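Whiteboard transcription, Tuesday session. T.W. wrote the structure tokens on the left side:
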């Protein structure tokens, strides 16, 4: 007969171990955010004192020496329209907070390389060799002229400083994969990634760490003349990866029209141990958190990732619907600075009533600018006359809205047309001195060549001209930047050239 005391001891010991395992599992995924006042709910002035350029979020500072102005704090409690939530006149925006009742905002791009930055000291120092998940949410002001890339977060051992709102040169670690331009004025966009610490990091700083010449921009608001890009920021997190589970993201299941492309996955940076598979288990890509795919039939894709010892997989399904039209081609062509020719040719059309020619300035929101009656099959053309406001945009997007006789709607592929960044030909490149700049259309142009320090080495204005401009670029062997501005629209193109 077994010893009763030993029997109950074994039961108690097993129950204790099970409880410990359950507790440990729960504790291991209890997220720890090292960012103080991460959603900016706490502030250090009265609600009646909130003003544009007043950095009032507790623990968050502007790392500028003698700043001309600071970041702006917005809260639902503000008694002034300047800094309220959701409406604030600082950015002429109507924007709810991503969470809570507050957010902050600053300029990521402005003339003369003016920048705003936000900086805070973490609640704990990062540990050498440990992995951290870092994210924040960003949203473009409704009334700014341009959107930019280089929306980034810098992790540093010590505080960094700038002077009078001039840009701070640094290499940030957290930005969206591929560093795309962020132009969403409606939704909060996540910027995040995984970072492995070298040990001793204590500070994070959010901003644009590149000058204007090295920042990509697009014009998004034709009613605004000031070349500025202001973003709202909310919910900043630095989380030790051991305190959370980072799962693979294949993206949402989606439906596309045959011929379209779709982005699957995420834009998290720092995910290097990633493999993508198609439905036949073929490897599509490695080391990328997301990618563009263009399937021709219903299919699925699988992402497999191992991040700092955390393994996971995810699957996304893409449903492909056929077009009611068999399209042979679809093209857009600039006839001159004020007119675009849209042409397409169909081989077959099934129950099609008409085509609506649609235009967009951001590739997302389209408006109809012409209607063409369907004729069964054949060649179609429609000219788009641009206004002065239209021609201020760097890029326009066109698509066809295909309307069936029963009212059903489908869309063609989207065509992207640069209306200022024409294919400028600058040659030879590299050069020993002589350069040729071919201007594609008649216009008023300003050509500026700067060195790597931003100093102007040559500038010329050419009114009512096109063809080839010749110049001898004398100086030391180096990299130079050639900026070509359309004086009529104010838009610009920047090219690099190497002097041997």
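and on the right, the sequence the group agreed on:
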């Amino acid at each position: 007969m077994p010893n009763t005391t030993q029997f109950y001891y074994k039961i108690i010991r097993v129950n204790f171990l099970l409880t410990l395992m359950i507790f440990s599992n729960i504790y291991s995924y209890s997220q720890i955010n090292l960012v103080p006042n991460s959603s900016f709910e706490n502030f250090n002035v009265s609600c009646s004192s909130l003003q544009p350029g007043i950095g009032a979020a507790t623990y968050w500072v502007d790392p500028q020496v003698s700043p001309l102005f600071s970041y702006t704090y917005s809260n639902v409690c503000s008694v002034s329209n300047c800094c309220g939530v959701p409406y604030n006149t600082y950015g002429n925006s109507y924007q709810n907070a991503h969470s809570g009742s507050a957010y902050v905002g600053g300029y990521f791009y402005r003339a003369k390389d003016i920048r705003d930055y936000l900086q805070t000291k973490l609640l704990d120092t990062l540990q050498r060799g440990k992995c951290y998940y870092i994210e924040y949410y960003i949203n473009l002001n409704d009334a700014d002229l341009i959107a930019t890339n280089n929306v980034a977060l810098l992790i540093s051992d010590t505080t960094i400083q700038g002077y009078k709102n001039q840009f701070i040169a640094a290499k940030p670690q957290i930005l969206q994969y591929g560093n795309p331009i962020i132009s969403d004025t409606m939704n909060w966009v996540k910027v995040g990634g995984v970072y492995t610490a070298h040990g001793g990091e204590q500070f994070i700083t959010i901003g644009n760490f590149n000058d204007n010449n090295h920042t990509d921009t697009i014009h998004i608001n034709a009613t605004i003349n000031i070349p500025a890009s202001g973003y709202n920021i909310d919910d900043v997190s630095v989380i030790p990866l051991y305190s959370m589970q980072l799962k693979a993201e294949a993206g949402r299941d989606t439906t596309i029209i045959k011929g379209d492309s779709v982005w699957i996955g995420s834009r998290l940076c720092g995910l290097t141990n990633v493999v993508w598979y198609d439905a036949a288990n073929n490897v599509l890509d490695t080391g990328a958190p997301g990618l563009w795919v263009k399937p021709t039939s219903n299919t699925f894709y699988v992402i497999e990732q191992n991040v700092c010892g955390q393994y996971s997989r995810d699957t996304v399904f893409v449903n492909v619907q056929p077009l009611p039209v068999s399209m042979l081609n679809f093209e857009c062509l600039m006839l001159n600075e004020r007119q675009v020719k849209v042409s397409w040719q169909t081989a077959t059309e099934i129950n099609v009533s008409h085509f609506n020619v649609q235009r967009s300035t951001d590739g997302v929101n389209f408006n109809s600018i012409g209607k063409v009656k369907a004729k069964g099959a054949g060649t179609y053309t429609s000219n788009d006359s641009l206004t002065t406001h239209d021609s201020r945009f760097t890029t326009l997007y066109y698509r066809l809205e295909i309307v069936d006789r029963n009212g059903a709607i489908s869309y063609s592929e989207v065509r992207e047309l640069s209306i200022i960044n024409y294919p400028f030909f600058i040659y030879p490149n590299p050069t020993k001195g002589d350069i040729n700049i071919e201007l594609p259309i008649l216009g008023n142009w300003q050509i500026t060549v700067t060195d790597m320090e931003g100093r102007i080495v040559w500038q010329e204005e050419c009114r009512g001209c096109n063809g080839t401009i010749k110049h001898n670029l004398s100086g030391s062997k180096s990299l130079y930047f050639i900026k070509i501005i359309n004086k009529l629209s104010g838009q610009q193109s920047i090219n690099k050239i190497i002097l041997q």
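Someone added at the bottom: Residues 1-28 have pLDDT under 50 and may be disordered.
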